[in-house]
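Weekly sync notes, structure subgroup
Attendees: PM, AL, DS (notes)

Item 1: joint prediction request from the bench team. They want all two components modeled as one assembly rather than separately. Inputs as received:
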Amino acid sequence: MLRLEAIDAFYDDLQALADVSFEVAEREILALVGANAAGKSTTLRVVSGLVAPRRGRVLFGDTELTAVPAHLRVERGIVQVPEGRRLFPFMSVTENLLLGAHARRARAERERTLDYVLALFPALADRKAQLAGSLSGGEQQMCAIGRALMARPRLLMLDEPTLGLAPVLVTKIFETVRAINAEGVTVLLVEQNVRQALTLAHRACVLESGKLVLQGRARELLGDERLKRAYLGL
Amino acid sequence: MDPARRLGPAQIDVVAQLGVSTVLLGGIYALVSVGLTLIFGIMRVVNFAHGEFLMLGMYVAFWAYTLLALDPYVVLFVSIPLFFGIGVLTYVLVMRGVIHASHNVQIFTTVGLSTALQNAALVAWTGDYRTVRPWHSAVVIRALGMAFNLSQVVAFAIAVALTLVLFAFMKWTHTGRVMRATAQDHDAATLMGIDTDKVYRLTFAIGIACVGAAGVLVSPLYAAYPTAGLQFVLLAYVVVVLGGLGDMLGAMLGSLIVAAVEVVGSYFFGVAWKEVFYFVLFIAVLVLRPAGLFGQRGAETLGV
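Output from the run, pasted for the record:
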């Protein structure tokens, strides 16, 4: 469904990604793991269009995305939940959710999707009129995921959705991601919580200093000696 | 001679007159300021050329009145779409290139635009004071011990109506929501599928349409000349800071405060002192409450 081919990306002169190639299959959950500054977020930003790669191609289905501006990629069903939630803090929960359905393909079914999202996150339904900036961390993450779902994604990209959350909320978020995937949404997940991410995902890619060093079935990677030593502290 | 004295002490109630003058003047200031605060609130750009668009609006009214004998209130219907178009054009040709640049670059750009427009007006129309005197500017209404000019009342009513329409548009329409979202988080807005370039273009166009309308509305009250915008735009900065940068209702209240300071100060100490009073107020607010009198703390960096 999504294919990255030999991507090089830079922030000014600093190279963030070097020759990164991988594929995400329809309906799978692919976890992107690695240390801080390994290039995980940059990879998502290249797919969503916030960062333009200096070299390489991004293909979504049969179409090449390189020349498609970021806001039109949402129209194709590529939706990113950015790191740190990035809600609109001075707007209510409802306003945030409605903005998620800005894309033309999502706007027609806005009311129905809103009902679905509020059923998925009942906590948000109780806080509809509250300013998003005043929600707790867990509620903010739910609101951010809910806002992304409002766009009716075909590919949902989540950047560190459990960062800074209590363990019980981490489990809740992972369960939600599984449920969203079960509805047919392809998921590209960036996580520092490597063990839980690998338990959830079908396949995984490991990034190190901007290079893709390892990829394979998530279950097999869980048993990989190198990965265990580097990320699981075993 | 002070206008109250000319009318005779028996015919005028000073306190009521000062009050009504404040409100009428405040309405006009609000319309000048609301476009500035909108552009700042959404785009984080201080438009130093704002006064020059007001000046152009005054000239449009002057030429339409002189050449075509059109009343400014008729011209208003043409000038709003005209200045919307001028706003789009200015954004595409000038502002788009600097929207993501540093504040210094933006300041140089808009100050440069201001100077260019002033001098273009000077070359095209000379430095003469041009006045529009439609019938309504000579009509004085007297009621309850107050006297005011019909043009001023109409300008006030239209200014308040336009400000309220704009406020409602920002608060309750999807497009208004999209504009606020872009102000609060540009990247997150892009990830929602929002074309932020289009949002900035629309914002700038609406801001310029407001100030163009303001120029036409004040034309029966103030003379048009190439630097006519300066006297208004200076106080519009005061209004915008008082109201909390980017806050539209704040700008309206700020307008009333500045108008009150001007009216009361001019009455007791003379017209020449009015700038001193509102700039003292301006500095006091900057020192004591940098987020503005009505602004939410932190909102100045995020926009509301």
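Discussion: Chain B has one domain: 12-302.
Action: AL to compare against the crosslinking data before next sync.
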